[in-house]
Amino acid sequence: METKIPKERKKQFELIELATKSILKWAHEHNISLVHIYPVLPFVETDFSLEAWLFLDTENRIDEYSIDGTLELLKSRFTLELEKVDYPKDWLQSVSFHFGSKEKVDQDYEGSFYYFLR
Question: Quick count: other Cβ atoms within 10 Å of Cβ 80?
């Protein structure tokens, strides 16, 4: 049985993917160790909130970026990238950010972002 993704949810996935590609490229160009973004969306078809998990290379990097303001810069930049791809303003209001490290995912969760988030 094939599950059909509602049109609006599909649009949301596509816009998030575009913004993700842009910010990963931007981070690489600015020597910021953002290595992966894992979007978490609710199962409720009418809820377009987004929990954006931004993964840096190490736990120490999270601490470093917390002190020097880079975590806030990453939040602002990802929001900007969402705006650039015309992510709806009412959806933007429901974006929240979390940070994790690839180091922790590899060390404790068999390299699986999915396991990390469960």
Answer: 13
